[in-house]
Structure formats: structure tokens, C-alpha cells
Amino acid sequence: MVSVFFRSCKDLRKLQRNHMHLILNVVGQPLSRFNMTKVLSQAVCDAIKGHQQAHKIGILHRYISEGNILIVDSDSQPFQGMLVDFDYAFFYSGSHASGRAGEAKIASFAARKRRMQAAAQNVDGSQVSNELKERTRTLLFMAIAFLDLEGEEVMYLLQHDLESFYWVLVWIVLRHTRYTHPNGPTTCHKLFGGEDEFACRAAKLEWINSRRFVDVKDNEPLTSLLATLTRLVRDAHNNSEQLTYDSVLELFEEALLMDGWPTDDKAIPVQHIDTSKEVPVQNEPDVGVSGLLKRSADTEYPFVCSKRKKGDSETLSRHGQDHESIIIF
Q1: Residue 251 CA to its chain's centroid (Å)
Q2: Alpha-carbon distance 119 to 129, whole Å?
Q3: What is the separation of C-alpha 73 from the centre of its chain, rounded to a whole number of angstroms?
Q4: 217 and 264 in contact (C-beta within 8 Å)?
Q5: For the purposes of burial, counting CB atoms within 10 Å of the CB of 130, is it exposed (0-12), middle (13-18) or buried (19 or more)?
Q6: Is the separation of the CB atoms in 109 and 156 below 8 Å?
Q7: What is the spatial distance between Cα 321 and Cα 228, in angstroms, rounded to a whole number?
Q8: How many Å apart are CA 242 and CA 251, to the nearest integer?
Q9: Structure pTM?
Q10: Looking at residue 285, what is its pLDDT?
Q11: How far apart are CA 324 and CA 87, in angstroms?
């Protein structure tokens, strides 16, 4: 209760006091705490559907990352995943039926880079810091088209958010499941351990073009989903085609309907490895989706890379850390 004592005043509104309450509640859990990989896949699928609903009313999220997708632990909800944090969302008007809607109004990253470089030469550090906030993103999940642009004008479109969903799923699988891959325990590091945008771009291009798929232990549906999504992203990138809601959601829906999802494969803790020592890559022939489940392997790798040496980029340690709790108000 708030009480106010006053003697006299012509305008009582000047003495008005507001008593405000802020109520917080946990609405979801991080992806890294899934209790089954099917729940993980369903949560990402539902987040894409939520993204689609926002896009229909003229909103493009533009910041898809691990921390912005939550698992909803509630039997009363018709969905198991939700998309949050629209701080970087772009609002456009007019027709939005296609992925290029409103593209004339969406600023390119290349233009922002030039503005930041110019600002660094003319303003103090605090102003530069404020300008950099607009460029703040997570390299781990950024679409290939926006890594190491070298002055190229690239318009941010729907397809880039859809590609980010793919990288989020791959990141979670490499950190919190048991799997096999020709790169062995350094798989996560080789893909996500780039020190700059150029290295990240090169690693992601090698990943989608290598045709060496992740084989999740005793999990044919998830293994198949990752393989088909990788092929979809590769074809879209190499053939300059656009990823669409229909093409991506179709693969998720098909995988979720498959038999063989484990019921006791909750997320395992992240195990850091020493990446200062090179691990020989297994020389395996490229295989297609139909043959990836037949690959023999002796070791599963529930690992994540750590910093290689003092002074190296700390991108993974900053953005890859698990959240203790997530609240929305």
C-alpha cells in the first residue's frame, strides 16, 4: 500500500503515486534440457510454426538461436516448443506471402559493417558500442550467406531464419546426444569452433557439402531428420534456392511420425575436450541418407569443444553455456 500526505495543491495529479507489481513466471525450459530427443525435435518444429504465424502478420524474427527456443513443459498447451525474444524482429507492411516481402526495407549486414567502420573512426567508444549492438548476433547459428560478406549486399530474408533453425538443431545434437561421426570427438569444434566469420563460413560449407552425416546412437528418426535437413540446406545454398516453411516442416513432420524414437534419451551433460591435440579423421566414403544408418562406429561422442588456447575466441563459451532458468515478463 502506498499513502500520500499533502497540504494543498491545485492539481492533485502532480502528487499521484503508482504502486506497481512485476510478476514473473517460468514458461519453458532450454532446449539443452530435453527429456527425449523427440521432444527436442518437436519443440524446434513448433518454434518454426510459431515463426510462420509471426511472418504471416509481417514479423521476421532475425535472431534464431538456442536461447530463443523454449521447451514447453505443460500438458495443457497444444505445442511443445515456443519462439521468444523478438528484440531484433523486423516489422514490415504490405504483402508478406513470399520470403522477399518487405526486403526493400530490411537493412543488409554489409551496410551495417560499413557504418560501424566509419563510426569507429569518428566517435568515442560508447557510441561505437551502441552501434555494435545492432550487429550483435550468434555466429554459431547465423546463415552462411551472412558470414564474411566482404562488402557483398545481402538482404535478410525468411530463408536465413529457417537455416538458423537447422544450425540450432545440429548444435544441440552435437552437445547433448551420443553420436558417431567421421570427425570423431572434435566434430563440434570443427563445425562451430571458428574464430571469425570467414572460418565459420568455411566450416559450415564443408559440413553441408561433405555428405558425412551424424549418426545418433539408436535413433534412426533423428539421424534421418538431420541428414535430410542437411541435404535441403545444401541444395538451397548451392542452387540459390529459397528454403520455405513447407519444405522444412515437411521433413520434421515425416521424422516425427517415424517409429523408433527412444524414450530414455534425455540430454546428457556437456563434456569439454582438449582441442589442442589433433584427432585423426576417420576416412570413410561418403554415403547417402539410405546408407548412413549402416555405418559402423565404435565410439559415441557427447562432447563440445572448449577454448583452444588463451586469447582465442570465446564465442562458444559465451553463447554455448546452458541457462539455469529462463523467465519472460
Answers
A1: 18
A2: 10
A3: 20
A4: no
A5: exposed
A6: yes
A7: 28
A8: 15
A9: 0.71
A10: 41
A11: 21
Q: What is the pLDDT of residue 226?
A: 97
Determine the Cα–Cα distance for residues 189 and 206; give it in Å rounded to an integer.
Answer: 13
pLDDT at position 191:
95
Segments of 11-109 assigned E as strands: 25-26, 29-30, 59-60, 69-71, 81-83, 90-91
The tens digit of pLDDT for each residue in 189-218 reads: 999 998 888 999 999 999 999 988 899 999
- Residue for cell digits 491545485? 10
- Determine the pLDDT at residue 282: 46
Q: Which three cell numbers stand for residue 197?
A: 566469420
Estimate to the nearest angstrom the gap between the alpha carbon of 18 and the chain centroid.
Answer: 40
In the chain, which stretches have pLDDT less than 70?
A: 1-17, 93-137, 148-153, 273-329
Residue at grid coordinates 575466441: 313
Position of cell 500438458?
A: 75
The phi, psi pair for 314, rounded to 5°, reads -105, 25
228 contacts 202 by C-beta, under 8 angstroms: no
Instruction: Quote the pLDDT of residue 278.
Output: 52
Q: Is 273 helix (H, G, I), strand (E, B) or coil?
A: strand
pLDDT at 65: 94
Asked if 326 contacts 24 with a C-beta cutoff of 8 angstroms, the reply is no
At 243, is the secondary structure helix, strand, or coil?
Answer: coil
**Sign, CA torsion 55/56/58/59:** negative
User: Nearest-CA neighbor of 191 among 279, 305, 297?
Assistant: 305
Q: How far is CA 15 from CA 5, 9, 20, in A?
A: 9, 8, 16
**Identity of the amino acid at 29:** Q
d(CA 55, CA 42): 20
